[in-house]
Amino acid sequence: MEHLHKGLIFILLVGFGVSNLSGCATTRSIDPNDETHYDANYDFSDKKKIVDDLTTSLLSGTQLPPATKKPIMIIYPLTNETSEHINTSGITDDIRMALIRSGKYRFINEAQRSNILKEKAYQDAGHVDPSMQISQGKQLGADYILSGALRSIEKTQQKQIRLTKKKLVYYSLNLELTDLTTGEIAWADKVELAREASRPIIGW
Hints:
alpha/beta, Rossmann fold, six-stranded mixed sheet
């Protein structure tokens, strides 16, 4: 009976300790401009580097022919050819924002085209004062298409006796600017990222 009593006390103490550990979670703010990685996989630090490098390259791109007006661009979704679920629209949104802020480019909102047509149909149905209806055929035409692909290669160590497990991940994002008039690639560049991560075979 005494052994049973001691065993019960031990279980209660262990349970109390585990519950205390689970309740000790903390949260802190970090600088989004700092490079922070918890493993080898793609994260927000990678997105920032990709956006910064490609917009800098494009803004300094002397490859584009001189124009009398700001080039009008349209961005199409990046192709995600990695094995991860990566929201590539976050990359293109930030690139577009940086280029708009530069004042050197204009953009067509391709994502809102269906909504524009819907609003136009609503106005044409007589719900809006005729003097305030938008005119048909006044939308801008794009000069360039901005598109690209995100790819990755992942390598892990072969099975062997070791205390840590290592993984190497390589990412490459290729971006290109296509002239809609000629079909020519007017500009192209890429960003490459490679990272190795290791963790103990036995651990949390």
